[in-house]
Design goal:
By secondary structure, the protein is of the alpha/beta class. The protein contains eleven helices and eleven strands. It has two domains: about 120 residues, Rossmann fold (3-Layer(aba) Sandwich); about 170 residues, Rossmann fold (3-Layer(aba) Sandwich). Helix 8 packs across helix 9. It comes from Novacetimonas maltaceti.
Length: about 300
Amino acid sequence: MRILFITSTRLGDAVISTGLLDHLLHRYPQARFTIACGPVAAGLFAHMPRREQTIVMTKRPYDMHWVDLWRQCMGTRWDLCVDLRGSVIPFLLRVGNRRGMRGGRRPGPRVAHLAQVLGLSPPPVPVVWTSAAERDRARALLPGGEGPWVALAPTANWAGKVWPAERFVAFWHEFVAAHGPARPVILYGPGDTERRMAQGVISALGNALDTGGGLSVTQVAAVLQRCMLFVGNDSGLMHLSAAAGTPTLGLFGPSRVDEYAPCGRAVAHVVAPGPAGQADMRDLGVANVVDAALNLLADSREAG
């Protein structure tokens, strides 16, 4: 059996879709998978079981990236195509069973929207796949004797979603005073823009482990699995943390918390005050985030 799975160009949405893949892996234990996604998300599937290939869709003018995908898939007869992009591709290929997204934005969690494609309720939670080598490297980076470790993710893909660096620093000092000793791990993506957003936190927290923005997606996931807590802006890293099983606190302002709140076994979120879509992250209080982090840790310990 061969399954074509077309998912997002964005890391966060791709992470959310992994719950469907995990469901399909268990439902069809002999199936082989081809994943089609954008370049940022491609590394997420590197260690997925029974993955034959990942087709990286690099955006091209006039939507020619869809033509490229069709050309790479037209020679195969697919038993199932799951298209989370709502494209015409499944109708241009030899496909036994087509499942896809239709329509525009709907109210409710994104993970539930995706689950409806396969008629699943409750929706399957996202997962991550890491290698033994990545887990070994994470243990070397975050040795047990120097923790507990807390991941801080002070960046996002647009400025309106970013809690100011000085608030992250103030949060850290208040959190440690209330919780006890811990060591921060600063996570951010590749490139100068991400580095600049994270630099204020890195510079202010002298004992922070700076991961440098150069780790692969699954290496970051392995690092997150070593952390007792994640606190960060609404971002792909937030969704990755929740999928990795780390207690995850997402910080929200103008972005759509109803749709993109973290989904996992131990998650929570805090929303800046203000009208939906217009809340200012600068109005999100440090004390609120500290309280939410401590409550999340307490709840996760009771649950597990």
